[in-house]
Design brief:
With about 425 residues, this protein is an all-alpha fold. The chain has two domains: about 130 residues, no CATH class; about 280 residues, no CATH class. Helix content is about 80%, strand content about 0%. The protein has 17 helices and no strands. Helix 2 runs parallel beside helix 6, helix 8 packs antiparallel against helix 9 and helix 11 runs parallel beside helix 17. The longest helix has 27 residues. It is elongated and about 75 Å long.
């Protein structure tokens, strides 16, 4: 036993445990104050608690339980004797966690070191975290975070992770994952708008809204431009950046639904995204930097839209598969093009699902996706007309360049 206790590995673990305790204890030392009313634990107490955990684990037997009881009793007594106006239990819990980190250091140095950094950071960021929870975080944002956590951590694991005949080979968990990705992207765009402030708020609002509906965003920007002509450049930037969101989300759909075919789809998807980013960047560089007075939709993400998208993708896949099997290629292309007027991603996702299931060729699926992109672009162009001639010419011309960027790779490398 003594040889193992004093082995280089054990001594290293004890040293790491001491370092972890010191790291955690530094913040508590700065906050415990001085005099009779000072806190009960500081730098030395945390270091000793962590070393105690490591040594008790190394010696084995019932020492770990005895040491844990000792640390817990000391923390309980300190809390009972606390006479401050706000007798929280942060320090007491941190002391016991330091002990556990020391215990874990014997078998897992990396885990203990990482846990100590996380705990020390949590203690140090007390003020910013309190401000974030009490002032910065809005009720709607907290509600959205809880909904997203429930959807990702509760609902998703319960869904079957297997292809189902009634979905024509589509995996239910994959569909739900796609809905989660949509909500996550919308949330990221919302955070970007919050962090960017007013200077980039207009453009980022358009980008974020594009993940919900780029057609609706272009139409809304057109109406705003007609109402306030001085915001022409900012409205153009918002409209074109919503188009960037369209192709970012199309990439997400392709990666999720047909990952094995991504190399064949990459030229078309890449050409469209590069062109969209280019025209969007040019419009942003020339924008006025004026932000909207208030966002059109204050929600972090649209759960209904994400769920409806997953449902629409399933329904469209069923319909297109039936038409493809009983009518032929023309029905697949025509159905996808028609659906693209209303929802590009559901239409394209359906074609890609058929590709992944082996019921459509790469050429047919890519062509169907491009037709959906084309009809969806026509919907955006129709919405842009509401902004007047100047707005329409700028936006429709840019949309045409993006459409050309999508079609050119297909014409030269049809697969």
């Amino acid at each position: 036993m003594e040889a193992s206790v004093f082995s280089p590995a054990t001594l290293t673990a004890v040293a790491v445990a001491a370092g972890c305790g010191m790291l955690i204890g530094i913040d508590r030392e700065r906050r415990k104050g001085s005099g009779p009313a000072r806190g009960f634990a500081g730098l030395r107490s945390f270091t000793l608690a962590s070393v105690l955990g490591a040594l008790s684990q190394a010696l084995g037997g019932a020492l770990v339980l005895a040491a844990a009881g000792l640390v817990a009793a000391l923390a309980a007594i300190a809390y009972w004797r606390d006479r401050s106006d706000d007798p929280g239990i942060t320090t007491e819990l941190a002391l016991f966690l330091s002990f556990l980190i020391g215990v874990a250091a014997i078998d897992n140095l990396a885990f203990s070191a990482g846990a100590s950094v996380v705990l020390a950071s949590l203690l140090y960021l007390r003020g910013p975290l309190h401000r974030f929870a009490r002032a910065s975080l809005r009720p709607a944002e907290l509600r959205a975070a809880l909904l997203f956590a429930g959807a990702a951590l509760v609902v998703r694991p319960l869904l079957p992770d297997a292809d189902h005949p009634w979905l024509l080979g589509v995996n239910p968990r994959t569909l739900w994952t796609l809905a989660l990705l949509i909500m996550g992207i919308q949330a990221a765009a919302h955070i970007g708008v919050r962090l960017a402030g007013p200077r980039l708020g207009f453009a980022l609002s358009g980008f974020g809204a594009g993940f919900i509906s780029s057609v609706a965003t272009v139409t809304a920007m057109a109406a705003r431009c007609r109402k306030e002509p001085q915001l022409h450049r900012a409205c153009v930037a918002g409209a074109l950046l919503s188009n960037v969101a369209t192709f970012v989300l199309l990439w997400v759909v392709a990666v999720t639904v047909a990952p094995a075919h991504l190399p064949a789809l990459a030229p078309v998807l890449g050409g469209a995204l590069i062109a969209a980013v280019a025209v969007g960047g040019i419009s942003l560089a020339g924008g006025s930097g004026v932000a909207p007075a208030a966002p059109a939709n204050g929600r972090v993400f649209d759960v209904r839209q994400a769920a409806l998208f997953a449902a629409a993708l399933s329904a469209a896949t069923l319909g297109l598969a039936y038409l493809n099997a009983h009518v032929g290629q023309g029905a697949l292309l025509g159905g996808t093009a028609l659906a693209g007027f209303f929802d590009l991603h559901a239409a394209s996702g359906s074609a890609l699902a058929l590709l992944a299931g082996g019921t459509a060729s790469t050429h047919d699926a890519t062509l169907a996706m491009l037709l959906a992109v084309t009809t969806n672009t026509l919907s955006k162009a129709a919405g842009a007309l509401a902004g007047g001639a100047r707005f329409a010419v700028r936006v429709i011309g840019s949309l045409a360049l993006v459409l050309l960027g999508a079609w050119l790779p297909f014409w030269f490398w049809p697969g």
